[in-house]
């Protein structure tokens, strides 16, 4: 039953993308690999380090042009069996790639998850302060996610799993109109062993949909190490 449910969600996602992207002129494609390392300091406290690079896909030849590089750190504290809070610091390098301003970002996060059988649901709230030389933007994010094992009721080493999420974003800045974004993400992952996970997937973004709407599709890859 789990396999049929997963295939059904993937089919719905594919049909949604095909309908939405057909005829879209204001659209960009991106490739975004990510490496993350989770370091557990105590039973309820861990550090998360990440490096993420994004390249824009140009024309029908699928040429890649580097757009940005991000380095981030999160400190996460578990406050209950299914809840955690975290503080994050991120630096985004843009100027060396496309001439845009670099960005310093502070993040405050609250996360809660629930489990029903083999399904796990997670909700995440984030507040971000995006600081650039010319502008400071405050962004607020809410994400609803679901993951489940593909091969059975429990995820074992060597088995795949499925993750789907939707996220709403609101950005506000002095002298600027509020910006609303929506993101839909689908990933397939593999628990390689007890310390390594691999994920591949796609993310569809609707940017500034109340004004000058833009569309973006990201091809995602991720390597997660847990120490």
In short:
With 227 residues, the chain is mainly beta.
Sum up the structure in keywords.
single chain; 227 residues; mainly beta; Porin; eleven-stranded mixed barrel; 11 strands; 11% helix; 67% strand; DUF2490; DUF2490 domain-containing protein; signal
**Average pLDDT value?**
90
By DSSP, the count of extended strands is 11
As a percent range, the share of helical residues equals 10-25%
Percentage of residues in DSSP E strands: over 45%
Low-confidence segments, ≥5 residues, pLDDT <50?
1-6, 19-23
Supply the helix-strand structural class.
mainly beta
Protein name: DUF2490 domain-containing protein
Pfam family, one: DUF2490
Signal peptide: 1-25
Keywords: Signal
Write the layout of secondary structure elements.
Blueprint: H1 2-21, E1 27-42, E2 45-58, E3 63-80, E4 83-93, H2 95-98, E5 103-116, E6 119-131, E7 136-149, E8 160-173, E9 179-191, E10 196-207, E11 214-226
Parallel strand pairs: 1-11
Antiparallel strand pairs: 1-2, 2-3, 3-4, 4-5, 5-6, 6-7, 7-8, 8-9, 9-10, 10-11
General description of the model:
- The chain has one domain (2-183, 194-204, 211-226): Porin (Beta Barrel).
- Helices cover 11% and strands 67% of the residues.
- The protein has two helices and eleven strands.
């Amino acid at each position: 039953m789990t396999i049929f449910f997963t295939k059904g969600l993937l089919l719905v996602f594919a049909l949604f993308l095909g309908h939405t992207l057909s005829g879209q002129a204001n659209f960009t494609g991106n490739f975004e690999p990510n490496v993350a390392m989770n370091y557990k300091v105590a039973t309820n406290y861990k550090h998360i380090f990440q490096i993420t690079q994004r390249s824009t896909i140009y024309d029908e030849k699928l040429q890649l042009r580097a757009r940005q590089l991000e380095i981030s750190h999160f400190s996460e504290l578990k406050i209950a069996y299914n809840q955690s809070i975290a503080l994050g610091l991120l630096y985004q390098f843009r100027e060396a790639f496309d001439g845009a301003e670099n960005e310093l970002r502070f993040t405050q996060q609250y996360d809660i998850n629930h489990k029903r059988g083999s399904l796990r649901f997670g909700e995440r709230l984030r507040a971000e302060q995006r600081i650039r030389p010319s502008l400071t933007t405050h962004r607020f994010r809410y994400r609803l996610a679901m993951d489940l094992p593909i091969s059975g009721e429990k995820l074992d080493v060597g088995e795949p799993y499925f993750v789907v999420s939707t996220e709403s974003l609101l950005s506000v800045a002095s002298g600027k109109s509020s910006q609303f974004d929506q993101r839909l993400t689908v990933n397939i992952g593999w628990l390689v062993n007890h310390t390594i996970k691999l994920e591949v997937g796609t993310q569809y973004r609707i940017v500034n949909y109340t004004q000058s709407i833009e569309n973006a599709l990201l091809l995602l890859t991720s390597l997660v190490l847990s120490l």
